[in-house]
Amino acid sequence: MSISARGPVGAPHLNEGAPGAPETKVAAADARAAVADFLAAFEAYKEVNDARLAEVERRGADPLTTEALERIDTALDAHQARLDDIATKARRPALSSQEAPSAAARAHGSAFEGYVRSGEAGGLKALEAKALSAGVGADGGYLVPHETESEIGRRLAALSPIRSIASVQVIGAGSYRKPFMTSGPASGWAAETAARPQTDSPVLAELAFPAMELYAMPAATQALLDDAQVNVEEWLAAEVDAAFAEQESVAFVTGDGVAKPKGFLDYTKVAESTWTWGNVGYVASGAAGAFHSTAPADPLIDLVYAVKSGYRQNASFVMSRRTQAAVRKLKDESGSYLWSPPAAAGQPASLLGYPVVESEAMPDIAANAFAIAFGDFRRFYLVVDRAGVRVLRDPFSAKPYVLFYTTKRVGGGVQDFNAVKLLRFAAT
After folding, report:
1. Is 108 helix (H, G, I), strand (E, B) or coil?
2. According to DSSP H, which parts of 92-169 are helical?
3. Are 144 and 216 in contact (CB under 8 A)?
4. Least buried of 37, 190, 388, 392, by fewest C-beta within 10 Å?
5. Strands 219-221 and 420-424
6. Rounded distance, CA 266 to CA 228, Å?
């Protein structure tokens, strides 16, 4: 049995080559090799796990077999990380657009570059005063060019797992309010000449999603900023995307709604049999902190069918890396594995035929933990982005470094409580 020891590839450069360029061909070859390594590792994983299960049935698992399975499991995680890195690299577009920027965009970009490099704010002051922007100046910072803001948004979509599958609404105010029909108007059948009695009216509720402030503070030396070869807008986008994505990923799952978005695990959770609007429903695994011992696949099937058919069409599983490692071992009654590796770079692994999204903000399997979510997250969770990313240049607080206090307004919350259900690792 042989397992490739290739590790995850390094972080990609921001500017990709054109199709057919040597860099693109190398990336494509690397993606094919990564998929082949992943599939080979999973075949080895199934072989060792089958041997472990046979030993358990006979006399108990051999420690050497268990150790070998853990090593392969770690290798699978490394291959998955490598595939994710390749996919992220492929999804990151170049910052510069092929379309010629407008005169206003060129003026803003030039003024912003002068501000970042030397602190000269005169050009930005004139532009934002002309646009009648509010909250500008030395205390509030200046808006980044539209291209840079768009690039930050695209990077967040590639790096933040919940944002990548949720709905995103861009707003111009501090809060987004959405009316939602919790029950539709009554209807019925009637004969051609029969009376049509008045029906019940629809029940509407208003959901409010305030935008909270998310910040990052990258630092640079003045020597770096003085280097004319450095694209400062590209550098800034690259510096803040990982910081923003990390904070968002946690808030969208477990945020308490206080100065941050409200995560879907912070809502009241109730058993699916007693579910009502405003709560997130769950089904139980049948055992505290574990899958059911005799029918481990049954709770996952129950979870899938707890979601109405209209929401299953675009549904995904969301779980942490350790939970996914436990799910990899599960089989159905015919002995087939429930979990399947991705068929190509950029595609997710699948469970029961549905894609698996990995989020480290999700809890691991433990007693009473809500470790797996399933459903249509695009209809379930709404991310609210306030238009505009601001940068405040600070050359004084950390000399000889120049700090760039970068802020973005983000909110989020559940918008349709029907769309996703949770798996609780408990007896009931």
Report:
1. helix
2. 103-118, 122-130, 146-159, 161-165
3. no
4. 190
5. unpaired
6. 47
pLDDT in tens, 60-70: 656 766 677 67
Reported as a pLDDT band with limits 50, 70 and 90, residue 116 is: confident
- Domain assignment present for residue 378? The answer is no
Domain residues for the domain of 59 are 22-91
Q: How many residues make up the chain in this entry?
A: 428
Does the residue 207 lie in any domain?
A: no
Residue 35's nearest CA partner among 85, 90, 82 is 82
136 touches 125 (CB < 8 A): yes
How far apart CA 323 and CA 250 sit, in angstroms, is 17
Our count of domains for the chain comes to 1
Question: Looking at the predicted structure, is the pLDDT value of residue 241 above 60?
Answer: yes
For residue 285, give the 3-state DSSP assignment: coil
Please give the residue that has the higher pLDDT: either 365 or 342. 365
In a domain, 27, yes or no: yes
SS3 label, residue 229? coil
pLDDT value of position 423: 98
Which DSSP symbol is given to 352?
Answer: T
Angle (deg, nearest 10), helices 146-159 and 232-254: 40
Residue 34 located in a structural domain: yes
Pairing of strands 142-143, 290-291: unpaired
Minimal CA–CA distance to 253: which of 320, 195, 312, 198? 320
The one-letter amino acid at 235? W
Could you give the C-alpha distances from 108 to 5, 42, 123, 134, in angstroms and in order?
48, 51, 8, 16
217 contacts 403 by C-beta, under 8 angstroms: yes
Q: How many CB atoms lie within 10 A of CB 258?
A: 8
Question: Is a pLDDT exceeding 50 seen at residue 138?
Answer: no
pLDDT tens across 50-87, in order? 776 666 656 665 676 667 767 767 776 776 666 666 66
Cβ-Cβ contacts under 8 Å for 60 (sequence gap 6 or more):
none
Taking residues 105-109, what's their average pLDDT?
73
Residue with tokens 């995904």: 316
Q: Let me know: does 380 contact 420? Beta carbons within 8 Å.
A: yes
